[in-house]
């Protein structure tokens, strides 16, 4: 019966993800939503939400 070392499996999964070098989603369900007006939040957060 094989035994899986959880730490070793997690490290291997992280290494594989780095090797795949995934790009950011530009379309579809994982794409960043469009800019939205925002009131009452900190200026750095508002700039990020407005895509500035």
- Estimate the strand proportion: under 5%
Which class best fits the helix and strand makeup? mainly alpha
Overall number of domains:
1
Number of helices: 2
Q: Could you give a short account of the major beta sheet?
A: none
SSE sequence, one letter per element: HH
Number of strands: 0
Radius of gyration: 19 Å
Report the uncertain regions: none
What's the pLDDT, averaged over the residues? Answer: 87
Terminus-to-terminus distance: 55 Å
Helix content: 40-55%
How would you describe the overall organization of this protein?
By secondary structure, the chain is mostly helical. It has one domain (6-49). It is 42% helix and 0% strand. It is built from two helices and no strands. The mean pLDDT is 87.
Summarize the structure.
This protein is 42% helix and 0% strand. By secondary structure, it is mainly α.
């Amino acid at each position: 019966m094989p035994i899986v070392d959880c730490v070793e499996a997690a490290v291997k999964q992280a290494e594989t993800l780095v090797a795949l070098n995934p790009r950011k989603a530009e379309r579809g369900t994982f794409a960043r939503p469009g800019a939205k007006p925002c009131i009452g939040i900190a200026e750095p957060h508002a700039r990020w939400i407005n895509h500035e």
